[in-house]
Structure formats: C-alpha cells, structure tokens
Automatic annotation (TrEMBL):
<keyword id="KW-0282">Flagellum</keyword>
<keyword id="KW-0975">Bacterial flagellum</keyword>
<dbReference type="Pfam" id="PF00460">
    <property type="entry name" value="Flg_bb_rod"/>
</dbReference>
<dbReference type="InterPro" id="IPR001444">
    <property type="entry name" value="Flag_bb_rod_N"/>
</dbReference>
<keyword id="KW-0969">Cilium</keyword>
<dbReference type="Pfam" id="PF06429">
    <property type="entry name" value="Flg_bbr_C"/>
</dbReference>
<keyword id="KW-0966">Cell projection</keyword>
<comment type="subunit">
    <text>The basal body constitutes a major portion of the flagellar organelle and consists of four rings (L,P,S, and M) mounted on a central rod. The rod consists of about 26 subunits of FlgG in the distal portion, and FlgB, FlgC and FlgF are thought to build up the proximal portion of the rod with about 6 subunits each.</text>
</comment>
<dbReference type="InterPro" id="IPR010930">
    <property type="entry name" value="Flg_bb/hook_C_dom"/>
</dbReference>
<feature type="domain" description="Flagellar basal body rod protein N-terminal">
    <location>
        <begin position="10"/>
        <end position="38"/>
    </location>
</feature>
<dbReference type="GO" id="GO:0071973">
    <property type="term" value="P:bacterial-type flagellum-dependent cell motility"/>
</dbReference>
<protein>
    <recommendedName>
        <fullName>Flagellar basal-body rod protein FlgC</fullName>
    </recommendedName>
</protein>
<feature type="domain" description="Flagellar basal-body/hook protein C-terminal">
    <location>
        <begin position="89"/>
        <end position="129"/>
    </location>
</feature>
<dbReference type="GO" id="GO:0030694">
    <property type="term" value="C:bacterial-type flagellum basal body, rod"/>
</dbReference>
<comment type="similarity">
    <text>Belongs to the flagella basal body rod proteins family.</text>
</comment>
<dbReference type="InterPro" id="IPR006299">
    <property type="entry name" value="FlgC"/>
</dbReference>
Amino acid sequence: MADTPMNIFDIAGRAMSAQLVRLNTTASNMANAGNVTGSAAEAYRAIKPVFRSVTESPGVSTVKVENIVTTRAEPIKRHDPNHPLADADGNVWESAVDSSAELVDMVETARMYENNVQVLQTAKSLLLETVKMGK
C-alpha cells in the first residue's frame, strides 16, 4: 500500500477496476460459448475472477483481484459425426459455459460498476460544495 491512506476515490477506483476484470472474463466466456473442439481436454472452460477484501484500517476497505481461475464445469459431449472436428467416435465437446449465468453476471457487474461511478460523482459534488462554502 502507499504511504497515504486510501480515500473515497481510491476505494471506488479499485472497485471499478475489479469489476472491469470481471466484465472482461464474462466477455471472454460469452465469446467462447458454443465453441466446439475434438476433445474434452481442448474444450474451453469458463473463467472467473477471485476477489479479496483489502482492509487498510477499520472502516476503510476495498477489493483486489486475487486471481483468475478456470471453473470445474465439464464440457458437453455431443455426437456429431459430420462435424469436421469430430473425433474417431464422431463426438465433439462444447465449451463449458452457461450463457444464462454469464448474462446475469454481466448485468450484475455493470450495475456494480455504475454504483461506484455514482459514488465518485457524489464525492466530487460534496467536495465542490465544501469548497464553495469556504469561499
């Protein structure tokens, strides 16, 4: 951490950065939904960020992206002998991505990001009003 304590702009900014990482992983998952490969090992599996709370002092905490992990969801095996990627048994594996859950994550992430934008706008307005009072 820096030598100066976190302020409202640092806290909201870090939260917004974490939500951007979450939105990027969701976009990656959505981009790969429905993709097929010739083996279960090659099939895409959804990725998710792991967040960690960062508490500088009592009452002052924010979030940090600790890691990005691959989910344990298994790809879906589908018999499609005419597909060019089908294995010797005529099977292909569809990526392990739940599109519905990803859409819910996307909406939730956008709302959390917007909430932090509102926090920054409110803090800015309060600071400007305080400066005006001092004139």
